[in-house]
């Protein structure tokens, strides 16, 4: 009986091992000012990231005032389709959208008019995608400044008039969308929201405190059980250090929750991680990203997806 138990245990852990071997991590990002579009990198351990397609673009933007493809956020649907949204301009009231079955061949790009009903809106920055499995609903959320709409915050001269809050729409099919609503309204200027579902089912949202006078420019978290209930506006203390950080991308790697981010003043990428979701360790010196990586999104895919992408290097 003992031998049967041991063999069963070995089989169980072998299955887990093979299952783990079948998953890899991808990272969508842009470089420069994003004129050349979507870039992808991959990793097996969450620390070392290698560029795909020899660093060449997978897709260039065709929508928006400036036809940019900044802050590309990718989410894979249950049917395997990859959906992507991005920032199309510094001053657009739309965001870009496209989909793909393999991350190589993309659909016709669309301009989602998420803030066109707000004539004074300054921008639609860093849209993110999150799929809520319980409701089978996609949430698209982004940062917008609407003058006079929210409690004013002290700003530097260079950021005068900017006072962002997070707005959102929902969709089940990327054909019809809900009305735009306010998603997160703290007492500070906030951009770059990103959500991950933790191993225990809890939702963790990472945001950037964008206040500029005095400057914050750091990342903080807030948690909720269900996305429909929203996130508490009382956020954590900064999880990043004495540098300016933006573009957070959370990723579960085993027991760790990593948050990658753009150290944009230092022109390099950084990361922090936690096991208990309370104490954070800066591991920026342990990670390696392709040169020039800017504001991206990390996500998990089957290894077959990566194998197909690697063929683009041949």
Topology, pairings included?
Layout (H helix, E strand, L loop, with lengths): L1 H20 L1 E8 L8 E5 L6 E2 L18 E7 L5 E6 L7 E6 L9 E3 L12 E8 L4 E9 L18 E8 L9 E4 L5 E8 L5 E7 L8 E7 L21 E8 L2 E8 L4 E7 L6 E2 L11 E9 H8 L4
Antiparallel strand pairs: 1-2, 1-19, 2-3, 4-5, 5-6, 6-7, 8-9, 9-10, 10-11, 12-13, 13-14, 15-16, 16-17, 17-18
Q: Total number of β-strand segments?
A: 19
Measured as a percent range, the helix fraction is under 10%
The CATH architecture classification is 5 Propeller
> Secondary-structure element order, as H and E?
HEEEEEEEEEEEEEEEEEEEH
Overall morphology: globular
Q: What does the radius of gyration come to?
A: 20 Å
Distance between the termini: 52 Å
Q: Strands of the biggest beta sheet: in what spatial order?
A: 3-2-1-19
